[in-house]
Amino acid sequence: MTPALKPNRRRFARYGFRTDVTYCTTTAAGAALVGRGATLDMSAMGILVELDRAVEVGATLQMSLAWPGIYHECEGVRLDVTAHVLRSEDKRIALQILTQEFRVPRRLRVSPPNATRWTAPRFLAEPANRVA
User: What number of other Cβ atoms are within 10 A of residue 59's Cβ?
Assistant: First the structure.
């Protein structure tokens, strides 16, 4: 008799996603830990990573992920994440994402060709007509 499959209780689908990670955290004693690792999978609210060392459950990690491919027409974008350690099995760490922000390399932050200065569209620059 085969065991019944358990229903997936996750709110968000997980996707296999491998990329390099650098991280920083502090131990319970207050010592800073800096290291490297890789993602194994990711969802909208969580990441499973394999790091170069075990990290304590309950710790908060500041991580930077190398984002593959092109994001908003830019290469070399990084995803900065603050995450909470939910589970730690040796060097495999399950994280809950608290904050996330994409970072475009400074050298890529350029104005489009022929753009000298941005001007607000007329409807933004003028006050709205009010009906009394």
Answer: 17
Question: For the chain, what percentages of helix, strand and coil (3-state, to nearest 5) are there?
Answer: 5, 45, 50
Q: What is the CATH number of the domain that holds 96?
A: 2.40.10.220
Strand intervals (E) in the chain? 15-16, 20-26, 32-42, 46-51, 60-66, 78-89, 92-103
Residues 60/62/66/70 CA torsion (nearest 10 deg): 100
- Does a structural domain hold residue 30? yes
The total of structural domains in the chain comes to 1
- The answer to whether 61 touches 37, Cβ cutoff 8 Å, is no
- 0.90 surpassed by pTM: no
Radius of gyration of the chain (CA): 21
Question: What pLDDT digit, counting tens, does each position of 51-105 carry?
Answer: 999 999 999 999 999 888 777 777 788 899 999 999 999 899 999 999 999 888 7
Residue 69 maps to a domain = yes
